[in-house]
Design brief:
The complex is a heterodimer. By secondary structure, chain A is an all-alpha fold. Chain A contains 13 helices and no strands. By secondary structure, chain B is α/β, with parallel strands linked by helices. In chain B, a hairpin with a 2-residue loop joins strand 1 (2-11) and strand 2. The chains are: A mainly alpha, B alpha/beta.
């Protein structure tokens, strides 16, 4: 499956794996140098991937094909395999307790099946302008209370870093809403020019991300007025990354974002001013791509 | 009026539409029939601007796509968007504001539920409701009766009749000849990417007989059913 996806992206699978490992190491090393909460972010990312494999349709398929006993074994092996790079990373950074926690969690999750919520519809503040934040919020709603609780902890223990991390967590989460290209029908149906289409997407994203980010940012500004400049820099970077992500998505549209674009984003994490060059580059590329459907 | 002149469509070396010339006039319902792979969906995708093509497609309202309601054979739905949000999404895209979506819900769909949980027929009805609310001039309905219950079938037929009365252009494809017979004023027959003939309502019976003969022939005997 991974081989096919890489081939679809026009990348030789062997090269893709090497680049993927290199990108993983690069991003994780950056994380560990930039924030002391990197290990928690690694656990969250690993668990997020593992939980995805517990989706009911998938687990039922495994049970039907392999039976109860073998499907349990497969799920345990799968989860351990997914958690392996994150476990190695945590151990490399001497976070042994955290790596053990991740292994145990992956074993526990292998017994779980995430059932569909049936007819229950999760209310969202992003309902009036569907779809990215509407769908994204419902898929990742648990991130928001985590971010708010982290902000309260940041203020109560007087640690601005935790607060910044909480704010960036909300931004990082919102980037995931723009990873997959939507069905062409949902671009085609617009009656606007590509430039207006992009502008609308950026406007809605800015308005909607402001809803969960504002209470965090305002609290940090109020409780850490002496660090306003730093908070503002992180806040601006968050917006800039979100805009870049949207532009990258449509610069590759209708295909998925490719490895090169992923590497460019990774470089921007290390050197954010690079975004100033990337934003106009991806903007014009996106306009070009959208011209096909929004003539 | 929608005019199609010398329309050709290639996928690589494979020509899927061959020199199509067609006029779709206002206030008429046009049926497109043909076997699987005859080029019906490709024709629709070309008209709607979803595909590049050689030739010319023109209309009085331009660009055509901005005035077109396109019902796909299998409408796509996001995993966690409700029926109401789906309608709102399409309305927003077209810059149309509808305050009371519930009152326009003529198929009694559970609009507060995720559309992805709908049955095939309900999905079709939702997609149709949405495009009807977009105040289009032209409609392409690819298999609108697929998976639809009898009651809704009757409603859709009446909707198509209403669109005709409103002087809209409606283009329909269906594998069920009787539904086309009930709704269409003219039927265009496609075969292997070519427009074979256009038949007026008065000759639908002979077209149906001809199609039956061409597609069934002695194939049933070949099965050797006992």
């Amino acid at each position: 499956m991974a081989n096919r996806r890489l081939s679809d992206l026009g990348v030789n699978p062997a090269v893709g794996y090497i680049l993927g490992i290199a990108t993983f190491i690069l991003i994780s090393e950056l994380l560990f140098t930039k924030t002391e909460f990197a290990k928690y972010l690694v656990i969250l990312t690993g668990l997020g991937l593992i939980i995805q494999s517990s989706e009911i349709k998938r687990t039922e398929f495994l049970k039907i094909v392999f039976g109860n006993k073998r499907s349990r074994k497969i799920r345990v092996i799968e989860n351990l395999f997914i958690s392996l790079p994150f476990t190695i990373l945590l151990m490399f950074h001497m976070a042994f307790i955290e790596s053990l926690l991740l292994i145990l969690s992956s074993l526990v999750v292998s017994n779980l099946t995430l059932k569909n919520t049936g007819n229950y519809t999760l209310p969202t503040p992003f309902s009036s302008r569907p779809f990215e934040f509407t769908v994204g919020f419902r898929n990742t709603f648990f991130i928001f209370p985590i971010a708010f609780i982290l902000t309260i902890i940041a203020i109560s223990v007087n640690n601005l870093n935790i607060g910044i991390f909480a704010m960036l967590l909300v931004f990082l989460n919102s980037l995931s809403y723009y990873v997959k290209p939507e069905n062409e029908y949902f671009v085609w149906v617009y009656t606007v020019t590509p430039a207006k289409f992009i502008f609308e997407k950026l406007k809605i994203a800015t308005q909607y991300i402001s809803i969960p980010v504002s209470p965090i940012a305002i609290s940090l500004f109020l409780f850490y007025p002496e660090n306003s400049a730093m908070i503002l820099i992180f806040l601006s970077a968050g917006f800039a990354f979100l805009w870049t992500m949207i532009l990258i998505k449509y610069s590759a549209y209708p295909n998925e974002m490719n490895l090169l674009e992923g590497i460019l984003i990774a470089l921007c994490i290390n050197f954010p001013p690079f975004l100033l060059a990337l934003i106009p580059f991806f903007y014009f590329k996106a306009i070009n791509r959208l011209n096909v459907l929004l003539k | 009026m929608i005019k199609i002149r010398d329309l050709n469509k290639f996928y690589g070396n494979n020509q899927v539409l061959k020199n199509i010339n067609l006029d779709f006039s206002n206030g008429k319902v046009h049926g497109i029939v043909g076997e699987n792979g005859a080029g019906k969906t490709t024709l629709f995708r070309c008209i709607s601007g979803l595909e590049d093509y050689k030739g010319e497609i023109s209309s009085e309202f331009s660009p055509l796509k901005n005035h077109l309601g396109l019902l796909l054979t299998e409408p796509f739905f996001f995993s966690k968007i409700t029926g109401k949000e789906y309608i709102r999404l399409l309305c927003n895209a077209r810059g149309i504001s509808i305050k009371d979506i519930e009152s326009r819900n003529i198929f009694d769909l559970p609009l507060e539920q995720y559309a992805s949980t709908y049955s095939t027929g309900m999905k079709k009805k939702l997609a149709l409701t949405a495009i009807l609310l977009l105040e289009n001039k032209y409609y392409i309905l690819d298999e609108p009766f697929n998976g639809i219950d009898i009651q809704s079938n009757i409603i859709i037929t009446e909707i198509i009749n209403k669109l005709r009365d409103l002087n809209k252009i409606v283009i329909i494809s269906s594998h069920i000849f009787s539904t086309l017979g009930d709704t269409c004023d003219v039927i265009h027959l496609l075969r292997k990417g070519e427009l074979i003939k256009s038949v007026e309502k008065s000759n639908f019976k002979s077209l149906e007989a001809e199609m039956k003969n061409a597609s069934v022939g002695n194939k049933i005997e070949k099965l050797g059913l006992r």
